Amino acid sequence: MYDFAYHKPATLADAVKLLAADPDAKAVSGGHTLIPALKLRLNKPSALVDLSGIAEMKGIRREGGALVIGALTRHAEVAESAEVKAAIPALAYLAAHIGDVQVRNRGTLGGSVSNNDPAADYPAAVLGLGATVHTSKRKIAADDFFLGMFTTALEPDEILVAISFPIPEKAGYAKMKNPASRYVMAGAFVSKGPMGVRVAINGAGPCVFRQSAMEAALAAQWSPEAVAGIKQDADGLNSDIHGSAEYRAHLVTVMAKRAVAAAG
Ligand SMILES: Cc1cc2nc3c(=O)[nH]c(=O)nc-3n(C[C@H](O)[C@H](O)[C@H](O)COP(=O)(O)OP(=O)(O)OC[C@H]3O[C@@H](n4cnc5c(N)ncnc54)[C@H](O)[C@@H]3O)c2cc1C
């Protein structure tokens, strides 16, 4: 390892100050993405600002018609939460299928969404439910948050604090996973509720995106058959050792069908 400073602030205000004071410092939550990146020398921050001691970034609570989940909430906590299972079972299901048990016990909602890996699970739920991202500076609508591969609207010294998920009438999630890592090859999160009918596709492209033809079809008729005939264009989709763009395009339709069936 190379030398870097380590800070563990107890408040959000102190964490923001530490990040603002040093443009080469990086926040760390579960460390399940950042620490491997440091070991591979893909990232060389001058300091790590460990967010894990900040109480105001923890917890799951219901606020009116939404579930507000703190950024430091680990995947296993979301998967096992009675509150999440009752309000948005598709979100508990998604969290329960992230990685393996070690990853679910360390990885956090905020870390995953801030990182915006194209193959991550949570971005599909954030976009597919029309959630709102609460940061140390502002509130950002899901439609404005995910900007591209590993890129979000967050500024370098901006901390993701919580995410507010509107509670839908129906929601479902399906993914074709990489059998080794469980990362997403192609997935679909569908919902019908206060934010309208939404279909978010993850894993298939460089960044999670909404599938508008499927949204229109489901708005007219909510059934797996409504999306079965809609083909995803393979142009611009990911093509790698795990699968071609054409294969992923095919999976998009299959996963959307399964997600609607799961939503009921
Ligand atoms: C073997 C393995 C398998 C995995 N499989 C899956 C999978 O199937 N599906 C899936 O979705 N993910 C998977 N992951 C990723 C896992 O979910 C990570 O936990 C997640 O991507 C990052 O969360 P973290 O809390 O560990 O973030 P960290 O590693 O701590 O941070 C990741 C990035 O986000 C930034 N960051 C962290 N927290 C915040 C915050 N609150 N505000 C602003 N920036 C922040 C950091 O600076 C860093 O750039 C896997 C990881 C491993 C190691």
Verbal overview:
The chain has a 5-stranded antiparallel β-sheet. Strands 11-12-13-14 form a 4-stranded antiparallel β-sheet, with helices on both faces. It has a 3-stranded parallel β-sheet with strand order 1-3-2, with helices on one face. The protein is of the alpha+beta class and 264 residues long. Strand 12 and strand 13 (196-202) form a beta hairpin. The protein has 12 helices and 14 strands. The structure holds flavin-adenine dinucleotide (FAD).
Labels describing this entry:
14 strands, 264 residues, 5-stranded antiparallel sheet, Uridine Diphospho-n-acetylenolpyruvylglucosamine Reductase, domain 3, 4-stranded antiparallel sheet, globular, 12 helices, single chain, alpha+beta, 2 domains, binds flavin-adenine dinucleotide
Mean pLDDT: 97
Q: What's the N-to-C terminus distance? A: 50 Å
Radius of gyration: 18 Å
Count every beta strand, where a strand is a DSSP E run of 2 or more residues: 14
CATH class of the largest domain: Alpha Beta
Oligomer: single chain
